């Protein structure tokens, strides 16, 4: 290994927290007066959510509910990639919501280049859909983390395995 200390930059979310937030949304939809007699189906798979409801206004209301519950459960709104609301059969609309997980390759390359340019004493390497940053000084690694937190990227960044 190149140095004594390292950490990983990843982009991930807690699936259980997302499941809990969606359960809260379902419960709230069942009790709210403005959703009485309205079809609301919210299905979760590994990589996406599917929302089926009566009209675009209901879809927008459900989106607001999902976002508010996600924030309360410390989930970043950057994990959601909201697709278009498209007509489905039977006077219903469907919306596909893709869940972002992992660092895209182009973003990983951009971050590695930026880390190399600004912090010559650390060695960033792309490992799958994560970036491992290693260096001799823990202070330098802390500075890298602070700098990466300042960036406003399209995906949420987490820092793991700091040793």
Tags for this model:
163 residues, alpha+beta, 4-stranded antiparallel sheet, 37% helix, elongated
Description:
With 163 residues, the chain is an alpha+beta fold. 37% of the residues lie in helices and 30% in strands. The chain has a 4-stranded antiparallel sheet, with helices on one face. A 4-stranded antiparallel sheet has the order 2-3-5-4, with helices on one face. A hairpin with a 2-residue loop joins strand 6 and strand 7. Helix 1 packs across helix 2. It is elongated and about 60 Å long. The mean pLDDT is 90.
Strand order of the largest sheet: 6-7-1-8
Task: Please provide the count of β strands.
Answer: 8
Give the overall silhouette: elongated
Structural class: alpha+beta
So how many helices?
4
Summarize the biggest pleated sheet: 4 strands, antiparallel
The overall average pLDDT, rounded, is 90
Helix content: 25-40%
Low-confidence regions: none
| CA-CA gap between termini | 12 Å
Radius of gyration: 20 Å
Please write the string of helix (H) and strand (E) elements. Answer: EHEEHEEHEEHE
User: Strand percentage, roughly?
Assistant: 25-35%
Element layout with pairings:
Blueprint: E1 5-10, H1 15-31, E2 40-44, E3 48-53, H2 56-72, E4 80-88, E5 92-99, H3 105-118, E6 122-127, E7 130-135, H4 138-150, E8 158-160
Helix pairs in contact: 1-2
How would you briefly describe this protein structure?
The chain has 4 helices and 8 strands.
